[in-house]
Amino acid sequence: MGNSSMKQHIETAQKTGVLKVSQGKLSEFPPVFRQLEGNLRTLDLSENKFLLLPEEISRFTQLKHLNLQKNKLAKIPDCIGALTKLETFNASQNNLSILPRTLSNLIHLKQVYLSSNHLKEFPLMFCGLKHLDLLDLSKNEIESIPSDISGLHVTELNLNQNQITFISAQIAECPRLKTLRLEENCLQLSAISPKILRDSKIANLSVDGNLFEVKQLSDIDGYEIYMDRFTAVRKKMF
């Protein structure tokens, strides 16, 4: 991106609070970014060449939306925790294998997209964030869902295309979880606890592409209770 083009982007962002510099060759923040520290609300850095997110990101404390999709990020710095007004965070299609615990500071998060990375463990730092509606962890390398997940407040959790073999029954205690996507994992039928069907608020459980036939869910105690929730949600939609 040329200097004149970048200057125009900066001038526009100063008026709108929105800066989109995607599909470029950025690997660090240009110095002119500093002019926007006080008023930037939306920053789109998707489809660039960032290997590391610069520490300067912590200066943009007014940010509500941060898009880092399709870079080459192997790490998110701890200082991301300074962006306490952030509502949407997209770091899909990077090279992330770990996440900083400081993400738990982002108490206003509503949507988090981390699809197509290399996460091996479920990121429990998102538990306790009471405004978080959607957590997309599809296409990672997660192998299990631990018992501490009961503190997750999302309404939708996407874990499609991971390597999950174990699901803690405590997922049934997630207070708002209604949609759970587990397609194309490594689940046996025995991994689906009756408690998930019987006692949770889950009304949409997607399990196609695992090591059992979907129709076998009906053999699990609590299936009829789950279907009552499923049917009730469908009726509201039409």
Automatic annotation (TrEMBL):
Coiled coil: none annotated. Keywords: Leucine-rich repeat, Repeat. It comes from the Eukaryota. SMART domains: LRR_TYP. PROSITE patterns: LRR. InterPro entries: Leu-rich_rpt (IPR001611), Leu-rich_rpt_typical-subtyp (IPR003591), LRR_dom_sf (IPR032675), LRR_domain-containing (IPR050216). This is Leucine-rich repeat-containing protein 57.
